[in-house]
Specification:
Strand content: 15-25%
Helix content: 25-40%
Distance between the termini: 32 Å
Shape: globular
Oligomer: single chain
CATH superfamily of the largest domain: Metal-dependent hydrolases
CATH topology of the largest domain: TIM Barrel
Structural class: alpha/beta
Number of strands: 20
Number of domains: 2
CATH class of the largest domain: Alpha Beta
């Protein structure tokens, strides 16, 4: 007796091999049989005309909000069955305590986390802009080792952010060695996506080689200064990654399929030294500091494309500006964009959407074989406020745009980029494939209808075309409603003590 049988679907097993027609049978939380399956089942799901594939594994998220919102509906309804949090150098600490809390919340999805370099550095050194002492480095190594033993699946860095921006290669190599001993990867938000992108990739490759660790370049993107950036930059970046791979450095990347980023305004336009020792707001109220950095701030706003390309998403000091562009806010305040940007940061830095990427660049990155799909989103608990549409539509958007409309990727390749490729990279070895004995995380979708509905104007919109999502063998979303029996699990690193 099987618990669930999906009958007559197109099976995309996650390997990238051509799909085949057949049944998928589940017993408990595992896949029990594939092909022509005979025998009775407690529940039969008709799959004719539909595609069944492994659940989508989203390895670049900021999903600690799952503690407050364990249903994780925005992720579940786009087919995501596993999230990896703790990216860009920011994670909880201690890891074991977080994982215990997530487990107790009974999440609807599977949850794993990285240990964030920035979090550990801040715990040991605060926002000091210097190299660690021997004692401080030893303490960071101890915290990294404890995190890996408690269940972290790898390490992340945010070298674009404070305090990660203050770290040197030697420090990162020593900490990456700790993670490498447990088999975890190093996921990095590199220092630059603009004029110093090749230096940033070289730094990542150096860490990979010296530490003996697999590298994941987070949300690969290229920023172009209007009228100054050479054509073909994306092709050069991808060729650089291929060259490092040919040298034996395991470097892969992830990307979301939108021409806009989302982060704090200060991180993008303010030089990192202004935030040293935790005195960002204080320095931003200093007229001498503002005069000193004014030209640099103006240049970074210009690099993005101008103040009309920056949308305020959330600013606690005055929520009425949320959804407005920096240009609109500057006009309302009767100031220029550079001064107003510094004013906003001095009053409490807002988080913004930056419409700074070329769609053709995003498309080229998405289609590269060493690139997997990840949302860079998180668990959204409310359908209010300004958020990036990637939180609701990343995975259906890729299928709709690149398989059905552009026809630049095969269905099997898109599924691989969303399932087995990220699962293997982050050590989730019993997920990401439809194979006998694997965990039964599955998505059943209509290839003719699957599409995102979230836009920048209406970001809280769920996708269409997802017929069912199964997490650990149980139907978590049946196309109409989510199950009250949340069956997600906490996923700990394979060599952890947990």
């Amino acid at each position: 007796m099987y618990d669930v049988v999906i009958r007559g679907a197109r099976i995309c097993d996650g390997t990238g091999n051509p799909w085949r027609a057949g049944d998928v049978a589940l017993r408990g939380d595992r896949i029990a049989a594939i092909g022509i399956v005979s025998g009775r089942a407690r529940r039969v799901v008709q799959g004719r005309g539909l595609v069944v594939c492994p659940g989508f594994v989203d390895v670049h998220t900021h999903s600690d909000g799952i503690l407050q919102h364990p249903t994780a509906t925005n992720m579940l309804r786009q087919g995501v069955t596993t999230v990896v949090s703790g990216n860009c150098g920011a994670s909880a600490l201690p890891i074991g305590e977080l994982l215990d809390k997530v487990e107790a919340s009974r999440p609807a999805l599977n949850y794993a986390t990285l240990i964030g370099h920035g979090t550990v550095r801040a715990a040991v050194m605060g926002a000091a802009k210097r190299k660690p002492t021997r004692r401080e480095l030893a303490e960071m190594r101890r915290l990294f080792d404890a995190a890996m033993r408690e269940g972290a699946v790898g390490m992340s860095s945010g070298l674009f952010y404070v305090p990660g921006a203050y770290a040197h290669v030697g420090e990162l190599v020593e900490l990456a060695k700790v993670v490498a001993a447990y088999g975890g990867p190093y996921a990095t938000h590199k220092r630059s996506a603009g004029g110093k992108v090749f230096e940033a990739l070289r730094e990542a490759a150096t860490i990979g080689k010296r530490a003996g660790i697999a590298i994941e370049v987070s949300h690969l993107k290229i920023l172009h200064r209007r009228g100054r950036t050479r054509q073909g930059r994306v092709a050069q970046v991808l060729a650089t990654i291929e060259r490092y791979r040919a040298q034996g450095i395991e470097m892969t990347c992830d990307v979301h399929p939108y021409p806009a980023t989302f982060t704090g305004l200060s991180s993008v336009v303010i030089p990192p030294w202004v935030a040293k020792d935790g005195r960002l707001c204080e320095r931003m109220r200093d007229t001498g500091v503002r005069r000193r950095i004014r030209a640099e701030v103006a240049g970074k706003i210009a690099w993005i494309g101008g103040p009309d390309k920056i949308t305020i998403a959330s600013w606690a000091a005055d929520p009425s500006v949320n959804g407005k562009s920096l240009a609109d806010v500057a006009q309302a305040r009767r100031g220029n964009a550079t001064s107003v940007a510094m004013d906003l940061i001095a009053e409490g830095t807002p988080r913004c959407i930056f419409h700074a990427l070329r769609p053709e660049d995003v498309a080229q990155i998405v289609c590269h074989p060493a690139v997997m799909i990840a949302s860079d989103g998180g668990v959204v608990g409310s359908r209010k406020g300004v958020v990036h549409p990637r939180n609701y539509g990343t995975f259906p958007r890729v299928y709709r745009e690149y398989v059905r409309e552009r026809k630049t990727l095969r269905i099997e390749e898109v599924v691989r980029k969303m399932t087995s490729m990220p699962a293997r990279k982050f050590g989730l070895n019993d997920r990401g494939l439809i194979a006998t004995g694997m965990k039964a995380d599955l998505v059943l979708f209509d290839p003719d209808r699957i599409a995102e509905r979230a836009t920048f104007e209406r970001p809280h919109s769920f996708p269409v075309g997802i017929h069912a999502v199964l997490v650990n063998g149980r139907i978590a979303w049946d196309g109409k409603r989510a199950s009250r029996k949340r069956t997600g699990a906490v996923l700990r690193g394979p060599r952890s003590a947990g």
